[in-house]
Amino acid sequence: MQVSVREFKAHLSQYLSKAQAGQQFEITSHRKVVAKVIGVSTDTGLNCLTINGAATWSGGKPSGSSLKLASKGTSLSQMVIEDRG
What we know:
Largest sheet: 3 strands, mixed
Number of helices: 4
Number of strands: 3
Structural class: alpha+beta
CATH topology of the domain at 1-41: YefM-like fold
Order of helices and strands: EHHEEHH
CATH superfamily of the domain at 1-41: YefM-like domain
CATH class of the domain at 1-41: Alpha Beta
């Protein structure tokens, strides 16, 4: 489907909703195609892992890791303070 720049700007949210649903658009300026709008799939990355059952998410904020790093020696902030003199 081809849409003029003016039409696309005037009804941007409607065209973006259609693109999200899978429809593709070619944006034209003076009857020449200047851009193509393609919706992005949301089934990538973490979404894909949750769909496949490899990861779970309860919908809340992620909790911190139970891994604790042992503090040895001088902290980085202390090194910076000492380096500044």
